[in-house]
Amino acid sequence: MYTKTLVAGWGDMDFNAHMRNTAYLDKSADVRMMYFAEHGFPMSEFVRLRLGPVVMKDEIEYFREVRLLDEMQVTLSIAGLSEDASRMMLRNEFFRDGVLCARVTSTAGWFDLANRKLTVPPSGLAEPLKATPRTVDFRVLPGSVR
């Protein structure tokens, strides 16, 4: 399982002194981009290809609070993928002391920045997606390219 250890920082807190909802989305995106960078797709490669991930839907489920300076382990798995890898459901789970605190599931696709439409990723990018650990509720998605 791909996992990164992160810390809940000052800017991640809300008025109730726990991690705010958009901080979970930000940290999820950070872990995903770390994964792609470690698998041959750093930000510079996305810029070169004029390609980027585009999120169409986010779902956050909360189970336990995360407070200021709490360390958390954030995992990345794949809950859905189209056969052509143009569409995916990425799942990040947040653990503190081994206890599940939150789950973020994002439905996304690959956006061609030159043509401003969804596209099929190059094979070098599709392979890490296909190799990402799958969730127990994994499903095959329809492709996004028409």
Can I get a quick summary?
The protein is built from 3 helices and 7 strands. The protein has 146 residues and is an alpha+beta fold.
Notes on the protein architecture:
This protein has 146 residues and is of the alpha+beta class. It has a single domain, classed as Hotdog Thioesterase (Thiol Ester Dehydrase, Chain A). It is 23% helix and 45% strand. Strands 1, 2, 3, 4, 5, 6 and 7 form a seven-stranded mixed sheet that branches. The longest helix has 18 residues, at 21-38. The radius of gyration is 16 Å and the shape is globular. It starts with a strand and ends in a 5-residue tail after the last strand. The relative contact order is 0.23. The mean pLDDT is 94. This is Thioesterase family protein. Pfam families: 4HBT_2.
